[in-house]
């Protein structure tokens, strides 16, 4: 009987439950489903009323199942819906480090967002709208964070809708309406999270932090107790040297204060690799992946003990995959000197069963775990072959993403100005679509994005006609997706409470019925004890009334 609670089919925008088709999501589904559950519970209690406690237990299971429907609504409320008609600039985003996760075949907006909820790394779901309201033609899931930095870019394109995880929006994209006061608060930026070898000295810096006037104080703080770590300041106010690091994960907090004593903070993570982690980051063979894109990346060649460039296909990378040569060297070398990493015979690659899979692992169809780098590598490692089953579809959908026609000019000219990751000082020009003009800035020499030009004339000529209407991230761009989720939750709770009240009432009736039954059995066992009490005689003793 419990099977009907989980037997769903959303391929046509509906759920098949208890022999009926229901709306796939929303208030209508909650109301109809829980009403049906209430009525069926009443019928079942009536049929089981002579069986007592087992019936109560069974209905309590059903009540719990009804409340589990709230999971989808709670998930949906965590996302912000973007303005219509913007699409991810896939090539630019993947070049900057965005990760394509999957493209589940779904037909409803909410189901696409729910699929993103189920994937630990997913924070962006965007979809091509269908012909009917709330229906979609396709669903794409992405991770827009590369080592604690937001790297996704959008451009205008008719027919697309996007949802972004609210926490990611608040941390990386939140744009306050233009204030009336003169001085805005600063924005702390500690750069990418770092991955290093034990004993390596790490330089933390906040030179990418911004303020409309000036930042007067940079304060670094190590979160947690790590007695072995040594912290030293440098001649630069934004820098901190950290040395004598042991394997583990370290967190550092950067707080910046401007000249008006306004502050902002951010967290940077430093992962110091264990020998086993080093194998995955520095010994794993180069993996192009199944997709057929062309993205410049770097990997550490354990045989030559050098970081070498290669063209990455765009999906299902392993951990030996870096955006820059500097990032590769920082991870696999110590203080500029190659760490002796000789090629070794790899351990036998096999699935691991018996414990839950982490977010860094692929879950096989049999619930066993596999390192994600081995998914879609051309060789099945899961005993059921599930690690290779969806690869062909992934290749087709990623190609379809790259083939979406977009205006490269809009993608480049609407990027937020980025000074890069290095500390040089090169004069460049960037385009501000809100002011429709180009302005000078100091470029650090590496990293950043494509919104940088050699001269003001070249910048204005290339970006001519681009306005703030073409900018995807702006005040009001994303809105909390709570349209009818709260109403649906209220209806579900009220009906759930009604079911519980029904259980208590029927439980009381059940107990009373059983007591009455026991009394009747006693009467049948002693039919003469109160015979005279139950008969009234008339004057004629031979004719009882």
Give the topology, please.
Blueprint: E1 14-17, E2 20-23, H1 27-48, H2 53-67, H3 70-76, E3 79-82, E4 86-88, H4 90-96, E5 99-102, H5 109-118, E6 124-129, E7 136-143, E8 145-146, E9 149-150, E10 154-156, E11 160-165, H6 166-173, E12 194-196, E13 202-205, E14 215-223, E15 230-233, E16 239-243, E17 248-258, E18 263-272, H7 275-283, E19 295-301, E20 306-312, H8 325-332, E21 333-334, E22 337-338, E23 361-363, E24 369-371, H9 391-402, H10 408-413, E25 426-432, E26 437-443, H11 456-462, E27 478-480, H12 485-525, H13 531-534
Parallel strand pairs: 12-18
Antiparallel strand pairs: 1-2, 3-11, 3-27, 4-10, 5-7, 6-7, 6-11, 8-9, 13-16, 14-17, 15-16, 17-18, 19-20, 21-22, 23-24, 25-26
Keywords: Disulfide bond, Glycoprotein, Membrane, Signal, Transmembrane, Transmembrane helix
Pfam families: K319L-like_PKD (PF22352), Kunitz_BPTI (PF00014), Ldl_recept_a (PF00057), MANEC (PF07502)
Protein name: Serine peptidase inhibitor, Kunitz type 1 a
Describe this structure in words.
There is one protein chain. The chain has 545 residues and is of the alpha+beta class. Among the domains are: 2-75 and 484-525, no CATH class; 415-465, Factor Xa Inhibitor (Irregular), CATH 4.10.410. It has 13 helices and 27 strands. β1 and β2 form a beta hairpin. α2 packs antiparallel against α12. The model is unreliable at 1-35, 42-71, 338-346, 479-488 and 521-545 (pLDDT under 50).
**Mean of all residue-level pLDDT scores:** 77
Helix percentage: 25-40%
SS elements, strand count:
27
Beta fraction:
15-25%
Task: Give the helix/strand class.
Answer: alpha+beta
Runs with pLDDT <50, length 5+? Answer: 1-35, 42-71, 338-346, 479-488, 521-545
* Quaternary class: single chain
**How are the strands of the biggest sheet laid out side by side?**
5-7-6-11-3-27
Distance between the termini: 52 Å
Main sheet specs: 6 strands, antiparallel
| Overall geometric form | globular
Count of discrete alpha- or pi-helical segments spanning 4 or more residues: 13
Gyration radius, in Å: 32 Å
């Amino acid at each position: 009987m419990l099977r009907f609670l989980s037997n769903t089919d959303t391929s046509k925008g509906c759920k098949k439950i208890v022999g009926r088709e229901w709306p796939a999501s929303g208030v209508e589904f909650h109301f109809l489903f829980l009403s049906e559950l209430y009525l069926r519970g009443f019928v079942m209690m009536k049929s089981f009323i002579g069986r007592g406690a087992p019936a109560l237990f069974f209905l309590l299971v059903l009540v719990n199942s009804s409340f589990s429907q709230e999971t989808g609504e709670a998930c949906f409320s965590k996302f912000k819906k973007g303005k219509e008609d913007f699409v991810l600039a896939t090539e630019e985003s993947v070049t900057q480090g965005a990760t394509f996760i999957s493209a589940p075949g779904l037909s409803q907006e909410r189901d696409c967002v729910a699929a993103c909820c189920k994937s630990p790394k997913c924070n962006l779901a965007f979809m091509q709208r269908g012909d009917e309201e709330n229906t979609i033609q396709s669903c794409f899931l992405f991770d827009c964070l590369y080592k604690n930095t937001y790297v996704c870019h959008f451009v205008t394109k008719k027919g697309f809708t996007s949802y972004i995880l609210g926490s990611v929006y608040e941390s990386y994209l939140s744009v306050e309406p233009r204030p009336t006061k003169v001085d805005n608060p600063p924005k702390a930026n500690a750069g990418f999270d770092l991955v290093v070898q034990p004993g390596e000295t790490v330089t933390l810096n906040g030179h990418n932090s911004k303020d409309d006037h000036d930042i007067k104080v940079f304060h670094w703080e190590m979160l947690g107790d790590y007695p072995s770590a040594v912290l030293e300041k440098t001649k630069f106010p934004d820098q901190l040297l950290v040395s004598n690091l042991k394997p583990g994960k370290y967190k550092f907090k950067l707080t910046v204060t401007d000249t008006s004593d306004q502050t902002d903070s951010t967290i940077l993570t430093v992962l110091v690799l264990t020998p086993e982690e080093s194998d995955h980051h520095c010994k794993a063979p180069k993996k192009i992946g199944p997709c057929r894109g062309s993205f410049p990346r770097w990997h550490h060649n354990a045989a030559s003990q050098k970081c070498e460039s290669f063209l990455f296909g765009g999906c299902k990378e392993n951990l030996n995959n870096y955006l820059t040569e500097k990032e590769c060297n920082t991870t696999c070398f110590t203080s500029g000197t190659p760490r002796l990493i000789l090629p070794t015979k790899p351990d036998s690659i096999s699935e691991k069963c018996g414990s839950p899979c982490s977010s860094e692992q692929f879950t096989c169809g049999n619930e066993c775990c596999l390192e994600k780098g081995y998914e879609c590598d051309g060789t099945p490692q899961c005993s059921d072959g599930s690690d290779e089953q969806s690869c062909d579809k992934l290749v087709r959908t990623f190609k379809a993403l790259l083939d979406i026609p977009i205006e490269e000019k809009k993608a480049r000219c609407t990027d937020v100005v980025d000074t890069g990751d290095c500390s040089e000082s090169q004069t460049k020009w960037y385009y501000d679509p809100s002011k429709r003009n180009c302005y000078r800035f100091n470029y650090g020499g590496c990293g950043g994005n494509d919104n940088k030009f050699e001269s003001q004339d070249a910048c204005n000529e290339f970006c001519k006609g681009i306005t703030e209407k073409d900018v995807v991230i702006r005040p009001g761009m994303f809105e909390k997706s709570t349209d009818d989720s709260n109403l649906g939750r209220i209806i579900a709770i009220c009906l759930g409470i009604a079911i519980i009240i029904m259980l208590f009432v029927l439980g009381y009736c059940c107990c009373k019925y059983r007591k009455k039954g026991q009394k009747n059995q006693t009467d049948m066992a002693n039919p003469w004890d109160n015979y005279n009490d139950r008969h009234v005689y008339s004057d004629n003793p031979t004719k009882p009334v």
